């Protein structure tokens, strides 16, 4: 699974003899997905591949994407954790291509742990992610507050190390918790990827996103958008 750019327009040009031909335009460097722009284009409709928009490639500022991965017992139901791991690989593959930094915090019934401190993604992304996640089986409760506190500490240290760096916070969760902690102050942007499934939904991920002034993205819709993009070969 890979994050891919939206193809740019190819303006029609009139050539010798009045024939029309297309002249390629040098593509602007493509950076991380621009979720605010993507969701503005999406509007109230379901997310599809054509909605995806990208920022220009980060300059000297750089980008850190810190992911909080919910490994609680509820995430094991319905293959939610497997889906989360697949999307995590996709996100980190994109970070590898963009030479961005990533950090990974996993949380379950045993608490929260920093599995990957802020650093560049090594080559062989899928293998690296598999090694990072190998000890993770998932289980217990959802200590989101502990994970958010650890993220706040991690991002604060990252801000001291690289003050100009753009810091994104991603939360992969079904939000099966009654505790909605405050948003880490050092996060410049936040995204809640909602893994809640079934007909009876509590909507806590959306409430967390509202409290954090974050974008809430449905995990299945995100998977379908990325799968469609790969299938179309765009």
From TrEMBL:
It holds the Pfam family VWA_2. SUPFAM superfamilies: vWA-like. Residues 67-175 form the VWFA domain. This is Magnesium chelatase subunit ChlD-like protein. It comes from Chitinasiproducens palmae.
